[in-house]
Amino acid sequence: MSLPPLDDRNFDADRQHWIPVRVYYEDTDFTGMVYHANYLRFFERGRSDCLRDAGVSHQDLLNRDDPAAFTLTRVEVDYRRAAKVDDFLHIRTRYVGLDGIRFIFRQTCLRGSEVIAEAAITAVMIHSDGRPRRPVPELMDRLEACRWVGQG
Amino acid sequence: MTLPILDSKSFDPARQHWIQVRVYYEDTDFTGMVYHANYLRYFERGRSDWLRGTGLSHQELLSRDDPAAFTLTRLEVDYKRAARVDDLLRICTRYLGLDGCRLMFRQTCMRGNEVIAETTVDAVMIHPDGRPRRPVRDVVERLALFECKGDRQHIGA
Q1: Contact call for B73 and A41, based on CB within 8 A
Q2: Residues of B involved in catalysis
Q3: CB contact burial B76-98 (16+ within 10 A = b; e otherwise)
Q4: Which of A40, A110, A126, B140 is most buried, judged by most C-beta within 10 A?
Q5: CB contact under 8 A, A74 and B77
Q6: Domain count, chain A
Q7: CB proximity list for B88: less than 8 A, separation 6 or greater
């Protein structure tokens, strides 16, 4: 599969965000396949770069007068196929929107057109001491501008 | 919390398997909390040690005439509280049995009496080249001795 055309912030026309991920030795386990927990690392890179490209930086959030960060409250992963060393993968990230104070993401790990794994992620914003907080308003505006607009 | 009484294989009377996990620098991220993906590593240690407790091991399964391994097909994790460096955690592993080809597990990460994270995990057996295979009969029969009864209704709830 060739990637859809991306803008200079790595979003496609449906506002899906894309990053490439190469599989290295360190990502695999003794079965020769990518270790299951490492897909969560790949997905996290996808969300971090999606936020970065949307104009949201983790460091800027922490440097605020009222420091803020993200934490996950729920993860669901479906493993469809195995990825192996040297594979060239893509992480496609859809910011689905806010549900109360919860940020909802849907992500897919692809090898060409093959789905390797899919994830549904729920995140909330927290104070630096870990207590949940309402989302930071200007961040919500930036994210809203990058909310996925596709169907399905 | 005091641990329930464990047998020599770290099973309690309800056939729940327990391991201890200490949180190190390497487990945490810049927020000072355990990085979310690392709970999956803890849970995997719990399942591997559970398997060892049943008398099997990954290496033994791979050394069979018909080599076999496990792979995950689905997992769900609910993160309830944050764990931090130096915390002493416990992973409780419950094997819920087979559903078709899927081995079903439910696991909890505890700090004392506090639930830090909970997971449900579906695994299948595969050939070493990654192709799915039916669960190996003698393996499944062994594992069935360690099934936790009466917990199945909680799956996916």
Answers
A1: no
A2: 29
A3: bbbbeebbeeebebbbbbbbbbe
A4: A40
A5: yes
A6: 1
A7: B20, B21, B22, B23, B111
Instruction: State which residues of chain B have pLDDT below 50.
Output: 153-157
Domain range for residue A78? 17-144
Structure confidence by residue, pLDDT tens digits, B64-89: 998 999 999 999 999 999 999 999 99
CATH, range B17-149: 3.10.129.10
Contact B84, B22 (CB under 8 A): no
Q: Which two tokens stand for residue B84?
A: 């931090």
Is A50 among the domain residues?
A: yes
Domain residue extents for chain B: 17-149
Pairs across A and B, CB distance < 8 A? 67
Rounded CA-CA distance A19/A17 in Å is 7
Residues B106 and B98: beta-carbon distance below 8 Å: no
pLDDT at A32: 84
Helix (H) or strand (E) holding A121: strand A114-127
pLDDT of B97 reads: 95
Within 8 A of A44 by CB-CB distance, chain B residues are 36-37
Question: From CA B13, how far away is CA A146, in angstroms rounded?
Answer: 52
- Interface touch B71/A71, C-beta < 8 Å: no
So what's the ipTM on this one?
Answer: 0.89
Nearest residue to B33 (alpha-carbon basis) of B116, B99, B97: B116
pLDDT score for B1: 60
For B54, the token pair is 């049943």
Half-sphere exposure of B140 (CA within 13 A, CB side): 16
Per-residue pLDDT of chain A (152 residues; tens, 9 = 90+): 678 999 999 999 999 999 999 999 999 998 889 999 999 999 999 999 999 999 998 898 999 999 999 999 999 999 999 999 999 999 999 999 999 999 999 999 999 999 999 999 999 999 988 899 999 888 889 999 999 998 87
Per the domain annotation, does A150 fall within a domain? Answer: no
